[in-house]
């Protein structure tokens, strides 16, 4: 399996050095580039085409939300993970709306950042457990707007939705539930239709409102 190629954008050199050491020491990951401001992050992402772009929320030139919006406009499948000291729920909301697939606090354990990078690289979504439930109850929830309650989801559909919200890829869900990837995709599509949602981030918003992101 190829390494997960990560590009790091943070305007603090000390932070970059620490994260560089963490990522470089992690099996299956490699740091392919560093940027100290938002505009450089956009340029380097275009040049290096990393699997995951880890961006600080507050940077000169372009902030994290602006970087995310630029990257997603350029390539809708671009995977962005926000890493920040900001625990303000408004910051998280703006990053999600810009298209970020994850939001992790800098005070999180190193293992949590690694988990977040892997989840996002695999097509999943990862939100810091310290913020996810409380934040997403206030974010625009397509499932709520569409009237979806989840009451008509089957037990298996509920399992699939919860695992998607926790950051598992379709392949990982298939292995965990002993199903084919095609079957997982069918459950996912059916569940999203029932809930009136369109993206993985929408699913996370739905699951967080119901407390499904709490793991044991």
TrEMBL record:
Gene3D superfamilies assigned: 3.40.50.2300
Entry keyword set: DNA-binding, Phosphoprotein, Transcription, Transcription regulation
Superkingdom of source: Bacteria
Transcription keyword on record: yes
Domain Response regulatory residue range list: 5-121
UniProt xrefs under CDD domains: LuxR_C_like, REC_NarL-like
Pfam family, one: GerE
Sequence positions bearing 4-aspartylphosphate: 56
Keyword Cell cycle: no
Residues in the signal sequence: none
Any one GO molecular-function label of the UniProt entry: DNA binding
Protein name: DNA-binding response regulator
């Amino acid at each position: 399996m190829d390494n997960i190629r990560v590009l790091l954008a943070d305007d603090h050199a000390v932070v970059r050095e620490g994260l560089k050491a963490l990522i470089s020491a992690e099996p299956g990951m490699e740091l392919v580039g560093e940027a100290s401001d938002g505009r450089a992050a956009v340029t380097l992402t275009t040049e290096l085409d990393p699997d995951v772009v880890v961006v600080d929320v507050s940077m000169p030139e372009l902030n994290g939300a602006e970087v995310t919006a630029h990257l997603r406009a350029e390539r809708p499948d671009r995977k962005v993970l926000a890493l920040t000291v900001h625990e303000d729920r408004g910051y998280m909301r703006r990053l999600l709306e810009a298209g970020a697939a994850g939001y992790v606090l800098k005070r999180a354990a190193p293992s949590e950042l690694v988990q977040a990078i892997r989840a996002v690289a695999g097509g999943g979504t990862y939100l810091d457990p310290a913020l996810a439930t409380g934040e997403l109850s206030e974010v625009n929830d397509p499932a709520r707007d569409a009237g979806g309650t989840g009451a008509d989801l089957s037990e298996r559909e509920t399992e699939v939705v919860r695992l998607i919200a926790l950051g598992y890829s379709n392949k990982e869900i298939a292995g965990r539930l002993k199903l084919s990837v095609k079957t997982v995709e069918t459950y996912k599509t059916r569940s999203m239709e029932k809930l009136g949602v369109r993206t993985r981030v929408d699913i996370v918003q739905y699951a967080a409102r119901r407390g499904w992101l709490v793991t044991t």
